[in-house]
Write a structure and sequence with these properties.
Structural class: alpha+beta
Distance between the termini: 44 Å
Strand order of the largest sheet: 1-2-3-4-8-9-5-10
Number of helices: 11
Radius of gyration: 19 Å
Strand content: 15-25%
Number of domains: 1
Length: 300
């Protein structure tokens, strides 16, 4: 039976990012709501025409909302994904971006219970949309509804994905380039959120970990805390950041809990060499698939 839950909590950025929802202890942005299961959701006036069939697709297993930042999670086979892609291409939006990432896909409920997923839909509205329009000068956040598909480790067969006209494919490398650029932005919001997003799409990238590590010396304590939480997600990959994290801890700002948690997760984390190798191999397969698809559809 689907269950609906609302709460106010101090892990706002954590839920805003969703996949990165392990580690932040940052200021609250307000109320959050989640729905477990696939009960039909009501249309929002901000939604573009044609989005509701994508949202209420029967394979949805979880939904979270935080101040207008919405994530919809689905579990299904490739055939169900292909049906969703056809419907997504019909949405009345300027862009129809579909991100292909190595799997498995993961969701995390407000009580930190993990859930598996095969694809997600991200929609930005409400307060978060207003914030990103004013402060996200680097373009870190999605501007239009975006699908993310997780390949390997789940139920999706990359070679059987069928892409209708009008879909733009994005890869790990596309997002990585966007977030690396944003880390040097003059906007505190862009820098902090870019760090978290980068850690989620490139969790085993040492160059990404080093880029995030530079933010531990940022003048803004909020940015430093987001960097720490991002590095915590990367575990042993971020070992070189431990000295800087300990320096942050000595500074005694209000985010000491985030710094200590990052230190613990990195120093106590398991060796993920095998996982890193598998992730990179899948990322390369996705890149080949994307290049062939772009050539066939004559898209940039």
């Amino acid at each position: 039976m689907p269950r609906r839950k609302s709460l106010s909590f101090a892990h706002a950025v954590l839920v805003l990012v969703v996949v990165a929802a392990n580690s932040l202890a940052l200021p609250a942005w307000g109320m959050g709501q989640e729905v477990i299961g696939n009960e039909p959701l009501h249309a929002n006036s901000e939604y573009p025409e044609g989005l509701m069939p994508v949202i209420n697709e029967k394979h949805r297993v979880y939904y979270s909302w935080v101040n207008g930042n919405e994530h919809f999670y689905f579990q299904g086979e490739t055939a169900a994904l292909n049906d969703t892609l056809k419907q997504f291409a019909l949405v009345d939006a300027p862009e129809h971006n579909v991100v292909l990432l190595p799997g498995p896909g993961k969701a995390q409920r407000f009580d930190e219970t993990p859930m598996a997923c095969d694809w997600t839909l991200h929609v930005v509205g409400g307060i978060v949309k207003s914030m990103t329009e004013r402060r996200d000068e680097a373009g870190v956040w999605d501007k239009h509804p975006t699908l993310t598909v997780y390949v390997s480790g789940g139920s999706i067969d990359l070679d059987r994905i069928e892409l209708p006209e009008g879909i733009t494919l994005l890869t790990r490398d596309d997002l990585k380039a966007r977030y690396l650029k944003a880390i040097t932005s003059t906007s505190e919001e862009s820098r902090s959120h870019a760090a978290i997003f980068l850690a989620t799409v490139d969790p085993f990238g040492k160059d990404s970990a080093h880029a995030i590590q530079t933010l531990l010396k940022d003048e803004d304590s909020y940015v430093r805390a987001c960097a720490a939480s991002s590095l915590a997600l990367m575990g042993k990959i971020a070992e070189s950041a431990l000295p800087d994290l300990r320096e942050c801890l000595k500074n005694g700002d209000r985010y000491t809990e985030s710094y200590q948690r990052a230190i613990d997760k990195i120093s106590q984390g398991p060796d993920l060499a095998n996982e890193a190798k598998a992730y990179e191999e899948t990322a390369k397969s996705i890149l080949v698939f994307t290049q062939k698809t772009r050539a066939a559809h004559k898209t940039p």
